[in-house]
Amino acid sequence: xxxxxxxxxxxxxxxxxLAAGTYGFRLAGPLLRSRLTFPPRAxxxxxxxxxxxxxxxxxxxxxxxxxxxAGIARPFGVAVAGVLAWRKVPFLAxxxxxxxxxxxxxxxxxx
Length: 111
Fold this sequence. Notes:
By secondary structure, the chain is mainly alpha-helical. About 75% of the residues lie in helices and about 5% in strands. It has 4 helices and 2 strands. The protein has helices spanning about 10-35, 40-65, 75-85, 90-105; strands spanning about 65, 70. Strands 1-2 form a two-stranded antiparallel sheet. Helix 3 runs antiparallel to helix 4 (about 90-105). The radius of gyration is 21 Å and the shape is extended.
């Protein structure tokens, strides 16, 4: 028997609430941008924090697996992707090159 927390109705309501909240946050940006002003230092800090957050996400995903190190193949693939993205190669080619680089290393036995 389904508990109230696992019923289809509860799941649908939760999804709708999350969708409405996400839409509200996305809509608030353009609507409030002209009404709110931040000091230039705060704007630079927010821009920098977004870059730092993205870099930490990439590092965590690239370098760890479960509770240990990811090995060599995955970080190598991420490095290939980073270099190609920096060189402004199209996104599809970046993704394919990273996957191929990782797959080739794993094919020859490098984890």
